[in-house]
Design brief:
Elements lengths: L1 H21 L4 E2 L6 E10 L7 E5 L4 H4 L6 E5 L2 E3 L2 E3 L2 E5 L3 E2 L11 E5 L2 E3 L2 E3 L3 E7 L7 E9 L7 E10 L3 E7 L6 E6 L6 E5 L6 E3 L5 E7 L2 E9 L3 E9 L4 E3 L2 E4 L2
Parallel strand pairs: 1-8, 2-22, 2-23, 9-12, 11-17
Antiparallel strand pairs: 2-19, 3-4, 5-6, 7-18, 7-20, 9-10, 12-15, 13-14, 13-16, 16-17, 20-21
């Protein structure tokens, strides 16, 4: 019996060790000879039939329907001049590197304004996250942030991170803790036309592409990496790159509706 207990204890320790290694924290440090990875995310071929969804505005039209059309066009696939906007690019599984830069607003922030999540897509750091209600007091928002598990296998399950009503204008701070994934979907339970997406990786080598589909990851330690591009509708694409000391690497990604 004692031998069996000892064996089980050893197995448990091994499993815990493996789990700890798999979830090892990212280490911030000074980068020597840092290089860059850059490229572009594009879309090829015809847009899917559901690239844009028109949803009738039934709540708070005085605030949410500024264009007086009676509906909100939710652009799930945003393509301009071949650039696939609203896509994310990031390094997969980098153990150490540069510090997280300070957010532009002085804090990581989700802003609800004009019955929209602004911006539609952004990268945030796990930890304190400010949720701001910028609409009039007549508007009730209810933000639902969900961790998207299974993106890698194209079988996504959404698990709620937080879901709460925000009836009054102002700011509320929540702790953003990711369990198994970096990917987050946003929706408002009070307005069925409000959506958005975020990434919350353990490291700062992640960006949303620019209006022209371009991106750049800077101050990357020299080495070999897997770079991933994620579009919430089309999933993931990957590229292998080698970043030379103080040099440049290129990786571009082309998505399609197929």
């Amino acid at each position: 019996m004692e031998i069996r207990k000892s064996a089980l204890a050893s197995i448990a320790c091994a499993l815990l060790g493996a789990s700890a290694a798999a979830g090892a924290a990212y280490t911030e440090k000074a980068v020597t000879g840092g290089g860059s990875i850059s490229g572009k995310v594009t879309f090829q071929g015809a847009l899917p039939a559901d690239a844009v969804e028109k949803i009738t505005i039934t709540k708070n039209p005085e605030v949410c329907d500024v264009d007086k059309t009676g509906a909100r066009e939710v652009v799930w696939v945003d393509v301009k001049n071949g650039a696939l906007r609203g896509a994310f690019v990031f390094i997969d599984k980098i153990e150490s590197g540069k510090k997280w830069p300070a957010p532009k607003a002085g804090k990581f922030l989700i802003n609800q304004e004009g019955c929209r999540f602004r911006p539609w897509a952004q990268v945030v750091k796990p930890g304190p996250l400010t949720i701001k209600h910028s609409d009039p007091a007549t508007v009730l928002h209810n933000i639902n942030a969900r961790e998207m598990i299974g993106v890698e296998k194209s079988r996504v399950v959404r698990i709620t991170i937080f879901n709460f009503a925000q009836p009054d204008p102002g700011e509320i701070v929540k702790q953003l803790t990711m369990k198994r994934s970096h990917y987050i979907s946003l929706n408002c339970e009070a307005h069925n036309f409000m959506f958005g997406f975020m990434m919350a990786p353990e490291h700062p080598y992640a960006v949303v592409v620019g209006e022209d589909g371009s991106y750049s990851l800077d101050d990357v330690p020299p080495g070999e990496y897997t770079v991933l591009a994620w579009h919430p509708k089309f999933g993931l694409k990957e590229a292998k790159v080698t970043v030379p000391s103080a040099g440049k690497a290129q990786a571009s990604f082309a998505f399609s509706a197929k």
